[in-house]
Amino acid sequence: MPSRRLRCAGSTTAPRDGQRHRAALVRITGTGTGMARSLLGDALLFSAGAAVGAVLLLTLASPFAPPAVLLGRRSSSAAGGGGDRRTFYDDPEVTYTVDRPITGWDEKRAQWLRAHPELAGAGEGCVLMVSGSQPTPCRSPTGDHVLTRLLKNKADYCRLNGVQLLYNTALLRPSMDRYWAKIPLIRAAMVAHPEAEWVWWVDSDAVLTDMDFRLPLRRYRGHNLVVNGWPSLVYDEASPSWTGLNAGVFLVRNCQWSLDFMDAWAAMGPDSPDYRRWGAVLTSTFRDKVFNESDDQSALVYMLQHKGSPWRAKVFLENDYYFQGYWVEIVGRLGEIAARYEAMERRAPAAALLRKRHAASWDHAAYAAAREAALAGAGLAESGVRGWRRPFVTHFTGCQPCSGDRNRDYSGDSCDDGMRRALNFADDQVLRDYGFRHAGPLSDDVRPLPFDYPAAAGRR
């Protein structure tokens, strides 16, 4: 059977790399007759491509497809097409569980990829988002509803940006619960998804609040772990802070280094016979740590803190954009951010084309790139507390929507209202492609959008 060359979608576009964005903008904008011809040509090419893609999709997805289509990929991908090739999946020593280390993973994974040439070219751009929640119902009366909305938010982002999503509700190792539960899941995901170059852990209480932004993976070449953090708070051996980074959102490369790193990380967790001792060590190391238990975040900072750390060189502490942002400094600004984006789409040089209606998923990347190219001219390119760019990830640290045991520093309905604002802010970006938006930042109701929105709204 001929090899099907599939690509695991993702992005290698850096935030300031405008080449692809400018190209997409030129393709969308154009001028005069040339633009009309270009759009007509694009439409014909798109129609033909869509037809071929639909046939391929139906062929691959059909329950009536012959076994050669559904099951023949492995044997047909073997060298010379001459029969079955063994991979690490046939080795009983390779397990999904954290209690048995894996060795030689880079070569095992490379061998598997060589046996699947249809994945050639995916490389750095192949991302698997992993998230999850507890296997039992939430104690908070609204917790399960909030988790559903948080899951929908992640599914929306992944669908629009070509990212795979694994959402888990099982404790793969019951002794490693709460914040330690992510490590057994990520380990299993790496083995189950050798096609993924990166595993992107996102806590269940984190909201993707920019549906256009894609991870700048080229920025992280030469690194195996990307986490939001500040070197001055992590690497200061005299006075490190356990909040110098946030372990609720991170990227980890699918490689031997990462497996070894997670083994070392897990050795400070509940399965370790030294678990209580580690709690005392971390509490004495971090003066701002207020509880005696060994937790994943303190352990991660501790692993990176010392100059002789074998891990530090491969870790990228990202703080140039909201890789994950603290919700308290974000939610109060979302209304103004939305207003500034709408103003850009009314006044920018390519505003009419930014407002142009388009297919929800097929055209998303091109229109997202066009908006990206227009941000600088509208004064929206800067991220963080001083900028007006949409925050990429808004993390509701301490809100505990499922248990309801929120941090006592957060008063009244601040967590609940903040999550609704962030979820509606993100959902409006999705609903717009369907002709709707929420009636207000805290409203569950939606309303239809007028043609040529937001220019039409501004003319009222």
UniProtKB/TrEMBL annotation:
InterPro entries in UniProt: Glyco_trans_34, Nucleotide-diphossugar_trans
Record-linked Pfam families: Glyco_transf_34 (PF05637)
Chain segments annotated as transmembrane: 43-65
Gene3D superfamilies for the chain: Spore Coat Polysaccharide Biosynthesis Protein SpsA, Chain A
GO molecular-function terms, A-Z: galactosyltransferase activity
Record keywords, A-Z: Glycoprotein, Glycosyltransferase, Golgi apparatus, Membrane, Signal-anchor, Transferase, Transmembrane, Transmembrane helix
Gene Ontology CC, one term: Golgi membrane
Compartments (UniProt record): Golgi apparatus membrane
PANTHER family documented for this protein: GLYCOSYLTRANSFERASE 7-RELATED (PTHR31311:SF3), XYLOGLUCAN 6-XYLOSYLTRANSFERASE 5-RELATED-RELATED (PTHR31311)
Function of the molecule: Probable glycosyltransferase that may be involved in the biosynthesis of xyloglucan.
Protein name: Glycosyltransferase 6
